[in-house]
Amino acid sequence: MEKTPREGERPVHKIVKIILITLIGMFCVVTAVRANTRTLEMRFALSSDARSEFSKQLPVLSAGRILVEANWIATTAGKVNVSLTLILIQPDGSIVISKNGASALRLEHRVSEQDLERFAGSKEPKWTVKILNDADSSRSEVSGTLRITVPAASRALEHTQFTLLGSGNAQEIPFNVPAPGRLEIETIWEPEISRPLAQVPLVVSLIHPGESRTYARRQGASPIKVEHQITELALDQGARWIVRVQNDTQTKVNGRVRVIYTPSL
Question: CATH for 37-151, among 3.50.50.60, 3.40.50.620, 2.60.120.380, 1.10.20.10?
Answer without folding.
Answer: 2.60.120.380
